[in-house]
């Protein structure tokens, strides 16, 4: 992002912070959280197409489950 300095402003900021967008932001899709294959985000791929990649795909899915669990305990005792 390119930084710019506008007249009358006493600080630097990114261009994206200086312009107002006329478009409304897209809303989040809660149904995206409910997919069968969380690693591929329910991408429609035939199982036969994924077979050559099983050597790294299976460990990657297991790691994704560890790094991004389905539920997270909200506990502030470790802060």
UniProtKB/TrEMBL annotation:
Q: What is this protein called?
A: Putative cytoplasmic protein
Superkingdom to which the source organism belongs: Bacteria
């Amino acid at each position: 992002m390119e930084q710019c300095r506008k007249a009358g402003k006493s600080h630097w900021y990114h261009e994206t912070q200086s312009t107002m967008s006329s478009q409304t932001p897209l809303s989040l899709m809660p149904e995206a959280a409910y997919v069968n294959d969380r690693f591929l985000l329910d991408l429609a791929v035939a199982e036969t197409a994924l077979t050559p990649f099983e050597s790294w795909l299976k460990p990657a899915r297991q790691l994704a489950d560890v790094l991004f669990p389905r539920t997270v305990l909200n506990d502030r005792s470790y802060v």
